[in-house]
């Protein structure tokens, strides 16, 4: 396990300083330049040139993917189908990311992502960059459920000679107005999701899979990304099936973060999310605490989908996680059509703060927004507005 110091023994940069207990976190927000921010409600639109800083009791973040942009939806479908030229693709992805960044800034999030428009349904693009697998059943034209994804056979050592796509996405987006402080990378088993039914063989491939993920994450850190998040949603399902132990899960995470210095190191755990439905049949989150207990000094923040009432009832399990780990509580349910009132978000946040401390708590949605149709955007926007208001008034 790594400590909180760099390889030369000096303390790592504390990019998001924690406030002292019972104090508000004073968050300096970056200056914004004119960027298209379509659909942001007037009540939440901010003038970033006039308002240089804001004070919040609790910090806020997004998971990774941002909501769809209806005006470029057809172009993005063409991109993922391989029907756009290189220059047109770069322009489309950069403009889509700029819009996502502007929207997240306008909402008042503490940190934001580039929206992950270069990814296809979270994982569907991975089959295009991996070697050592052969697709024997292609993805369906419309992905509705988990069995609509392509199926692959393992044919050799799995690798990604040209990378996973997350580093190239960040390099495209990092110089956008406001920058992109947070980027994500899918975990080793998620990367090979198309062959997840061959789990014993995938476990034999873990040194290769972890190496690919670790290289991508180090590349993000070297390129200037300040928060690198590892997405491991399959862990919940595999643990509930008895196919993976919390100790094994923690070991995989630690291997992925090995040698990653000078950045905020985060993970995201949920139970899967396909059109609002989980992959795991067991919605308990208590086993996740057992993973975190083994990650002292390995990660800095855990972004957990704790939106279900059952998981709220299990919150005391997280009282034992290391003090070095902050909790981004995914209280706001992105898969629910009902908008959580500010009072309920504030109530839930207060109860989670009693477990981990307000100074270690972030508020967040449960999962990313990338699998939503455009018609859901007004609901998602209202959810995020309420979340930010609850964080400011906890």
The helix-strand sequence is EEEHHEEHEHHHEHHEHEHEHEH
C-alpha-based Rg, rounded: 20 Å
Number of helices: 12
In order across it, which strands form the biggest sheet? 3-11-10-9-8-7-6
Helical fraction equals: 25-40%
First and last CA, distance: 35 Å
Please state the overall shape, judged from the principal axes of the Cα atoms. globular
Tell me the CATH architecture: Alpha-Beta Barrel
- In CATH's first tier, which class applies? Alpha Beta
Q: What kind of sheet is the major sheet? A: 7 strands, parallel
The domain tally reads 1
Which structural class should the secondary elements be placed in?
alpha/beta
- CATH topology (level 3) name: TIM Barrel
**DSSP, total strands:** 11
Strand content: 5-15%
Q: What would the average pLDDT be, to the nearest integer?
A: 84
Low-confidence stretches: 1-56
Structural write-up:
The chain has 394 residues and is of the alpha/beta class. It has one domain: Alpha-Beta Barrel (TIM Barrel). The chain is 32% helix and 15% strand. The protein is built from twelve helices and eleven strands. The chain has a seven-stranded parallel beta sheet. The longest helix is centred in the N-terminal third of the chain and has 22 residues. The N terminus is likely disordered.
Question: Topology, please?
Answer:
Elements lengths: L24 E4 L24 E4 L2 E2 L12 H8 L5 H22 L23 E7 L13 E9 L6 H8 L8 E5 L1 H4 L7 H6 L1 H17 L4 E5 L2 H7 L5 H12 L6 E6 L16 H7 L8 E4 L4 H5 L12 E7 L9 H15 L4 E5 L11 H16 L2
Helix pairs in contact: 3-6, 6-8, 8-9, 11-12
């Amino acid at each position: 396990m790594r400590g909180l110091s760099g390889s030369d023994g000096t303390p790592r940069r504390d990019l998001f300083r924690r406030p002292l207990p019972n104090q508000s976190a004073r968050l300096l927000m970056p200056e914004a330049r004119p960027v298209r921010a379509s659909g942001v409600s007037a009540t939440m639109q901010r003038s970033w040139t006039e308002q240089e800083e804001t004070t919040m009791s609790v910090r806020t973040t997004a998971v990774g993917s941002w909501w769809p942009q209806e005006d470029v939806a057809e172009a993005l479908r063409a991109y993922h189908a391989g029907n756009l030229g290189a220059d047109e693709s770069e322009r489309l992805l950069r403009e889509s990311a700029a819009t996502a960044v502007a929207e997240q800034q306008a909402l008042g999030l503490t940190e934001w992502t580039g929206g992950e428009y270069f990814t296809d349904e979270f994982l569907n693009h991975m089959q295009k960059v991996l070697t050592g697998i052969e697709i024997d059943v292609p993805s369906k034209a419309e992905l509705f459920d988990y069995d609509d994804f392509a199926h692959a056979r393992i044919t050799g050592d799995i690798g990604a000679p040209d990378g996973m796509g997350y580093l190239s996405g960040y390099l495209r987006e990092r110089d956008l107005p406001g920058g992109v402080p947070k980027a994500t990378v899918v975990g080793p088993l998620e990367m090979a999701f198309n062959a997840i039914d061959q789990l014993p063989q995938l476990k034999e491939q873990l040194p290769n899979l972890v190496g690919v993920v670790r290289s991508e994450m180090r590349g993000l850190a070297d390129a200037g990304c300040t928060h690198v998040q590892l997405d491991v949603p399959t862990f919940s399902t595999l643990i509930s099936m008895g196919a993976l132990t919390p100790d094994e899960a923690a070991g995989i995470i630690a291997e992925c973060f090995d040698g990653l210095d000078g950045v905020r190191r985060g993970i995201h755990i949920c139970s899967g999310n396909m059109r609002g439905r989980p992959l795991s049949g067991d919605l308990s989150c208590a086993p996740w605490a057992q993973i975190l207990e083994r990650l002292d000094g390995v990660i800095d923040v855990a972004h957990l989908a704790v939106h279900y009432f059952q998981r709220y009832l299990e919150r005391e399990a997280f009282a034992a996680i290391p003090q070095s780990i902050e909790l981004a509580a995914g209280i706001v349910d992105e898969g629910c059509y009902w908008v959580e009132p500010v009072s309920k978000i504030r109530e839930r946040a207060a109860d989670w703060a009693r477990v981990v401390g307000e100074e270690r708590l972030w508020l967040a949605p449960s999962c990313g927004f990338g699998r939503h149709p455009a018609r859901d955007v007004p609901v998602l926007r209202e959810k995020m507005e309420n979340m930010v208001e609850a964080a400011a008034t906890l």
